[in-house]
């Protein structure tokens, strides 16, 4: 199997697994919220993990709210974070977990604006300025740090400056950016940020919403009052430890990973171009190091991938694969539905090798070459 779907999910780093295992053993029993030594040990491990998550984005440990993943973090930020009587602005290329909140916000009577993107997938700060000028009262802005389908990196600092001028809070879904890019929330001017364990070589089933002091979303599950009442529920010690370890490794390896993975992505693109004339790239070369999204005009990507079961790559967004709908991101970039269906996303990661990249390009070319129109 050649695994080139790291944007959908990254394999667990062996060091993360090693850090988690002791907390999954029977002798590690202990509710981290309990007042006895077993509970205190678990709570200490979670405190350390919280500090690692915080350090990755330059905030205080107390600003980290663990969630079940980025979907829950985005939902808490959006459904809980839009101010009473205020509006919400998002981009057209947000993940489904953000866009999926809009019908409920509309039902609650919040005015909404969805910003278009250019042909690279970039949001224009001037468009945000116009949208915020048209909204009554305070607002929440949510724009992702980097797109999960085409890898485009958004101009977050410029967008946050516009939001601040309008007195709006700014949240960002940073799930895809954190593995290969430095991101300091204070320097950028973000009040909220979502991240996910399984996009950072950490475990599935855990993520976090970073809630800065000046951002106060209404909790969806106040429950037992854990995590400052922002998200009730017993914290899963092994998962928290795994996420913390993954964040520490990301901080240590991010720059090296970005360089090496970026070189492999360029190699893949060159090889595909030389074997599949007519292939086009979606999103810019300046995007995420691990992302290459291409259109091979005339093919039915989902259909052709059935001939390549040994290759794990995505058609459109992994989250939408199988749904049969053309990717909303590719449509927002201006692609036709036919071209969206003829598109493939490669997600390269920490374990990807040059040999894998070469083999993936060659296998794809041998299967797809015959499917391409001759014109
Ligand atoms: N946002 C983005 C940009 C993503 O790529 C994903 C995962 N596909 C999510 C949010 C959802 O993350 P999770 O799987 O942790 O719910």
TrEMBL record:
<protein>
    <recommendedName>
        <fullName>Cysteine desulfurase</fullName>
    </recommendedName>
</protein>
<dbReference type="InterPro" id="IPR015422">
    <property type="entry name" value="PyrdxlP-dep_Trfase_small"/>
</dbReference>
<keyword id="KW-0479">Metal-binding</keyword>
<dbReference type="Pfam" id="PF00266">
    <property type="entry name" value="Aminotran_5"/>
</dbReference>
<dbReference type="InterPro" id="IPR015421">
    <property type="entry name" value="PyrdxlP-dep_Trfase_major"/>
</dbReference>
<keyword id="KW-0411">Iron-sulfur</keyword>
<comment type="function">
    <text>Catalyzes the removal of elemental sulfur atoms from cysteine to produce alanine. Seems to participate in the biosynthesis of the nitrogenase metalloclusters by providing the inorganic sulfur required for the Fe-S core formation.</text>
</comment>
<feature type="domain" description="Aminotransferase class V">
    <location>
        <begin position="2"/>
        <end position="358"/>
    </location>
</feature>
<dbReference type="InterPro" id="IPR015424">
    <property type="entry name" value="PyrdxlP-dep_Trfase"/>
</dbReference>
<dbReference type="InterPro" id="IPR016454">
    <property type="entry name" value="Cysteine_dSase"/>
</dbReference>
<keyword id="KW-0808">Transferase</keyword>
<keyword id="KW-0663">Pyridoxal phosphate</keyword>
<dbReference type="InterPro" id="IPR000192">
    <property type="entry name" value="Aminotrans_V_dom"/>
</dbReference>
<keyword id="KW-0408">Iron</keyword>
<comment type="similarity">
    <text>Belongs to the class-V pyridoxal-phosphate-dependent aminotransferase family. NifS/IscS subfamily.</text>
</comment>
């Amino acid at each position: 199997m050649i695994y080139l779907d790291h944007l959908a999910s990254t394999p667990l780093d062996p060091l993360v697994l090693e850090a988690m295992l002791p907390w999954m053993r029977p002798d590690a029993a202990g509710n981290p919220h309990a007042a006895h030594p077993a509970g205190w040990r678990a709570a200490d491990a979670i405190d350390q993990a919280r500090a690692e998550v915080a350090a990755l984005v330059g905030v205080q440990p107390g600003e980290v709210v663990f969630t079940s993943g980025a979907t829950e973090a985005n939902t808490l930020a959006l459904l809980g974070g839009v101010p009473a009587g205020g509006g919400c602005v998002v981009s057209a290329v947000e993940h489904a977990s953000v866009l999926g909140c809009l019908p409920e916000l509309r039902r609650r009577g919040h005015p909404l604006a969805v910003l278009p993107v250019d042909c690279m997938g970039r949001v224009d700060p001037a468009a945000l300025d116009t949208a915020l000028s048209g909204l009554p009262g305070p607002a929440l802005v949510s724009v992702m740090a980097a797109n999960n389908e085409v890898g485009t990196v958004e101009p977050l600092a410029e967008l946050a400056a516009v939001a601040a001028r309008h007195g709006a809070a700014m949240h960002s879904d940073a799930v895809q950016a954190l593995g290969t890019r430095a991101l300091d929330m204070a320097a950028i001017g973000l009040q909220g940020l979502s991240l996910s364990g399984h996009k950072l070589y950490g475990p599935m089933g855990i993520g976090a919403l970073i809630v800065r002091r000046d951002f106060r979303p209404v909790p969806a599950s106040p429950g037992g009052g854990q995590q400052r009442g922002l998200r009730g529920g017993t914290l899963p010690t092994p998962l928290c430890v795994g996420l913390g370890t993954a964040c520490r490794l990301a901080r240590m390896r991010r720059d090296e990973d970005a360089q090496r993975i970026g070189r492999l992505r360029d190699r893949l693109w060159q090889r595909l171009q030389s074997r599949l004339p007519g292939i086009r790239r979606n999103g810019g070369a300046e995007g995420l190091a691990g992302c290459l999204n291409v259109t091979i005009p005339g093919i039915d990507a989902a259909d052709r991938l059935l001939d390549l079961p040994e290759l794990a790559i995505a058609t459109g967004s992994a989250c939408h694969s199988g749904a049969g709908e053309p990717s909303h991101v590719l449509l927002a970039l201006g692609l036709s539905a036919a071209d969206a269906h003829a598109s493939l996303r490669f997600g390269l990661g920490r374990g990807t090798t040059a040999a894998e990249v070469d083999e993936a390009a060659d296998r794809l070319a041998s299967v797809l070459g015959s499917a391409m129109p001759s014109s």
